Amino acid sequence: MITLKTLLGTIAITALTATASFAQDVVNDRFKEVLERGVLRVGVQGAFKPWAFRAPEGTIQGIEVDLAQTVADRMGVTLETVVISSANRMEFLQQGKVDLLIGAMSDRPDRRKVVGIIEPAYWTSGPTLMAKEGVISSWDDIKGKPVCGKQGVFYNKIAEVEFGANVVAFGGNTEAKEALRSGKCLAWVYDDTSIAADIASGEWDGYEMPVDTVFSNPWGVAVPLEEKDGIWGAFMSGMAYNWHKDGTLIELEKKWGVKASPWLAALHEQLQYDNSYLDN
């Protein structure tokens, strides 16, 4: 019986030979290396609940860990999570300390020059609000009202210019959120992933994220830059496509208590393949 791991290895070797003559600037090493090693090393955040954080017993768990596990399972190898930070994640990938990044990294042009960011994106973030349950039902509700923000964050300008809020900016997140808790502000304007993490922590019972984000800032999985247009990049692009198509990301929202994202729902619908012709 041919195992998936054996089959994938054969495909990788065949593709290496086939592409060598016309893709001299593309490296096709990592996919085969992972299969031979039997271990997939994935860089994830270590303290970003519910995306990747430590369980009480010390293991890393969360949405991005679950996604990494689907990759390891598909390849027939063992998953090894490597805790990275926003400051060192691209460096870890460049230096070969990890094979793959699934680390809450937004897709930006400058980052695409350093690492191979895969399409489609697997998550997104953007400016939203946190407020007491039932207080806010739309962005229009903050017009003329005090809203807590963090100094230097451009989301403050959105709240002020587009929605007429009176932003009270604080030096740090802790001070701003405590001002919200004490009633000095109607809401806290910040990134929805951070707010979702606060709500999931259990420390903000009675608070909610009542409005959708103003815009989406997609997150991308990343492989080494030189592998993006090769086997490894193509394989991961297929994985990301299927996370959307088969509803994996939507199921993970439910599993980890994250508010349903219209962006994810739209991509899930968009990436469906119409095979109704098979019923004819």
Beta strands, count: 15
Order of helices and strands: HHEEEEHEHEHEEEEHEHEHEEEHHH
Tally of alpha and pi helices: 11
Largest sheet, in brief, is:
5 strands, mixed
- Ends apart, CA distance between termini: 35 Å
Q: Kindly state the percentage of residues in helix.
A: 25-40%
CATH topology of the largest domain: D-Maltodextrin-Binding Protein, domain 2
Strand content: 15-25%
Shape: globular
The domain count comes to: 2
Strand sequence of the main sheet, in spatial order?
Answer: 11-10-12-9-13
Poorly predicted sequence stretches spanning 5 or more consecutive residues? 10-24
Going by CATH, the homologous superfamily of the largest domain would be Periplasmic binding protein-like II
Query: On the 0-100 scale, what is the average pLDDT?
Result: 89
Whole-angstrom Rg: 21 Å
Oligomer: single chain
CATH architecture of the largest domain: 3-Layer(aba) Sandwich
**What's the CATH class label of the largest domain?**
Alpha Beta
Structural classification: alpha/beta
Q: What is this structure's SSE topology?
A:
Blueprint: H1 4-19, H2 30-37, E1 39-45, E2 47-48, E3 52-54, E4 60-61, H3 63-75, E5 78-84, H4 89-94, E6 100-101, H5 109-112, E7 115-117, E8 123-125, E9 127-132, E10 146-150, H6 155-162, E11 166-170, H7 173-181, E12 187-191, H8 192-200, E13 207-208, E14 217-219, E15 222-224, H9 231-245, H10 248-255, H11 262-270
Parallel strand pairs: 1-5, 1-6, 10-11, 10-12
Antiparallel strand pairs: 2-3, 3-4, 7-15, 8-14, 9-12, 9-13
